[in-house]
Structure formats: structure tokens, C-alpha cells
TrEMBL record:
This is Lipoprotein. It comes from the Bacteria.
Length: 179
């Protein structure tokens, strides 16, 4: 019986100690979210990761690509992109599955300015198109794209759309927390 008490006492002490070391946050909750891996530094890998998360395709004629990755609470990825393309290139990113397209004449609205930190002056924008929707197979992933068509980028003199019109694209993709 003494051997059992000694083993039980040692085992109980080990359980108490292991409960105090690692595996818990400062408030005693279990830390079930592992630390995410750092984002890659090369643009091609970041672009590939954005496409994998969002289900959207960046057009092959995209130029001046800027990607801003960030981990949100719980290690959820969020990407913001900006690139230059043509109207035809903008159609590539806005024709993804489960994405709606919304046209508006003139500059982006205040919400679009805030979400994307749009740099272009409103008076230089002829048309704004917003494309948004959830990922077709993962409803936790939300995608929003804003396409700006600058007044001086219209190729036809009559102002009618042309596939070669200049376009400035802002894209955003984020994974929402699981419920």
C-alpha cells in the first residue's frame, strides 16, 4: 500500500507540473492555435498563396504587383493586392466562380477607399467595378476586388469600353474565423 501511495503521489505531482508548463495561455486557456509559418518573401510564392486562398486568378498581363500579407487573430491569412492591367485582365480576376460583379460610374465609394487604401484621386477615375463573393468551396474565405478605370486610360475616343483600357486593380482576400 505504501508503494501505491508513493507512486500515486509522484504521478499526481507530475500531472500538476505538466499542467503548469506550456500548453496554456496566460489566462489558463489551452493554446490550440499553433504559431503560423512566416509568409514567404518572394512575390511569385505570395501570389500563388493568394490565388490558392482566394480561388481567384491574377491575369498574366498584371504589372507593378504589390502584395501585403498579414496574419490576423488565430493565424488566419489576409492578403491585399494592387496591380495594373487592362480591362481584359481585370475581367480575368472578376470572372472567378461564385463572385458577383457590380458596376458604378465614377470613383470608388468611401468604404472601398477605406478597405483598400486607394491612392488614386477620385477626379481621375472614369468607372469603378467591384467584384465580391465567398470562395466556391470554402465559405470562410471572402474575396473583394475593386477595379478602377482611369479617365486617361480609355483607349477609344468615344469613351466606350475597350479590352485594352488601362485598369488599376485592388484585391482583398481573408479567411474568417470558424464558428
Amino acid at each position: 500500500m505504501r508503494v501505491f501511495k508513493a507512486i500515486f503521489s509522484i504521478g499526481a505531482t507530475a500531472v500538476l507540473i505538466s499542467g503548469c508548463i506550456g500548453g496554456t495561455g496566460s489566462n489558463g486557456d489551452s493554446d490550440s492555435t499553433p504559431e503560423p509559418s512566416p509568409f514567404p518573401t518572394e512575390s511569385a510564392k505570395l501570389l500563388s498563396d493568394f490565388e490558392d486562398l482566394s480561388g481567384l486568378i491574377i491575369p498574366s498581363n498584371a504589372s507593378d504587383l504589390e502584395i501585403e500579407p498579414k496574419y490576423l487573430e488565430g493565424g488566419r491569412p489576409r492578403y491585399k493586392l494592387r496591380f495594373l492591367t487592362t480591362r481584359g485582365g481585370a475581367e480575368v480576376i472578376c470572372t472567378g466562380e461564385n463572385i458577383g460583379v457590380y458596376d458604378s460610374d465614377g470613383p470608388p465609394d468611401e468604404e472601398q477607399h477605406d478597405l483598400f487604401d486607394i491612392r488614386e484621386a477620385d477626379e481621375t477615375i472614369a468607372e469603378t467595378v467591384e467584384c465580391r463573393g465567398s470562395h466556391p468551396t470554402n465559405g470562410r474565405v471572402q474575396r473583394t476586388v475593386v477595379v478602377l478605370f482611369p479617365k486617361d486610360g480609355l483607349k477609344k475616343k468615344d469613351g466606350e469600353p475597350d479590352g485594352k483600357d488601362s485598369a488599376i486593380v485592388y484585391a482583398y482576400s481573408v479567411m474568417w474565423p470558424s464558428r
